[in-house]
Amino acid sequence: MMTANAAAAATAAIPSIPHDDEGPVFRAPWEAHAFAMALTLHDRGVFTWPEWASALADEIKRAQAAGDPDTGETYYLHWLATLEGLVARKGVASIEALHRYRDAWDHAAHRTPHGKPIELRPEDFG
Q1: Position 29 in a domain
Q2: Could you give the 3-state DSSP secondary structure of residue 73?
Q3: In terms of residue numbers, what domain contains 60?
Q4: Using the 8-state DSSP alphabet, how is residue 120 labeled?
Q5: Structural domain includes residue 76
Q6: Which end of the chain has a smaller Cβ tally under 10 Å, C or N?
Q7: Per-run averaged pLDDT (10 residues), the chain, 126 residues
Q8: Which residues, at least 6 apart from 83, have a Cβ–Cβ distance to it below 8 Å?
Q9: How many domains does the chain have?
Q10: What's the whole-model pTM score?
């Protein structure tokens, strides 16, 4: 669970996080989930905020070099790519495992009626 103190610490350590006077702001639920995952991994010692900020900056630079207009709308896509990269580099999970679960969630989301909880099933990994 994301605490206000943890969110405030992250926002202070990484000034580029979209935020208002009350804390981080998100345009979609998945952005808040990605943010919370990074907070949890930081709290568990997987990476430091300076390490995260450097990896995020590198990811944004790569995206800009590839044509990302950097309008702010893709910020959490970069956040998620950074999260995946650090998790793989730190040995928490392989890129292959991350992609396997991403694809399974995508499959599960497509078969789930709007408004219903998404649940992974074995067939989602096919």
Answers
A1: no
A2: coil
A3: 48-111
A4: -
A5: yes
A6: N
A7: 79 85 89 94 95 95 92 91 95 93 94 93 92
A8: 34, 37, 38, 41
A9: 1
A10: 0.79
